[in-house]
Write a structure and sequence with these properties.
Helices cover 47% and strands 10% of the residues. With 187 residues, it is mainly alpha-helical. Helix 3 (95-116) links the parallel strand 2 (75-82) and strand 3 (129-133).
Length: 187
């Protein structure tokens, strides 16, 4: 499991080319929606370039014969919505975050799923959202300082009152993501 920075540079391309699967974290904002378009387009180009290189390397063109190479075609497992403020609404977000939050799923389907399906880099399924990780506010610095996940933080790590309960209950936010990773590991 590798956590990459939010860019489409050479290092990320190399790591993604060697992966079997990938998950995309997104915030419910305009930048993430635009990012889905960039990511989908890049994967189409990378797929074509990688297949061309594999053909050359496996045939020994240019005097180089390389047989054991990664497929270069990681499968899209889904996305995680993150960093939004939560409310008891149908979207689970504040009205402000809902403006673009309601558009994320459509952008994922149009810009990633529809482009990667013909390349066999995504499995068709009903929903691609693996989980929603809201803004956990001050729990994050406590977690970083304690060198452990938020849900394992306690009063010994400086949490007080309701923060202890929020930290403990945050574990369920990760269940959908963990379940999806377990599925592919058990294939």
């Amino acid at each position: 499991l590798i956590d990459l920075g939010p860019n489409l540079g050479a290092l990320n391309r190399s790591v993604l080319g060697g992966c079997d699967y990938f998950i995309t974290p997104l915030s419910p904002d305009l930048f993430s929606i635009k990012g889905t378009e960039n990511l989908g387009n890049k994967f189409v180009v990378w797929n074509e370039e990688w297949k061309n290189n594999l053909r050359k390397w496996r045939s020994g063109e240019g005097g180089i014969l390389i047989e054991d190479l990664p497929s270069g075609t990681p499968i899209f497992l889904g996305y995680v919505m993150q960093q939004h403020n939560i409310r008891n609404t149908n979207t689970g977000m504040t009205k402000g975050w809902s403006i673009f939050g309601k558009e994320i799923d459509g952008a994922i389907r149009k810009n990633i799923v529809d482009k990667l399906l013909p390349l066999e880099q995504v499995e068709e399924k009903e929903s691609y959202i693996l989980g929603k990780i809201p803004n956990l506010h001050s729990l994050i610095p406590y977690s970083l300082n304690a060198h452990k996940p938020v849900y394992k933080c306690t009063g010994k790590d400086g949490l007080k009152g309701e923060h202890i309960t929020k930290a403990k209950n945050s574990r369920i936010l990760f269940d959908g993501i963990i379940d999806e990773i377990r599925k592919v590991l058990n294939k």
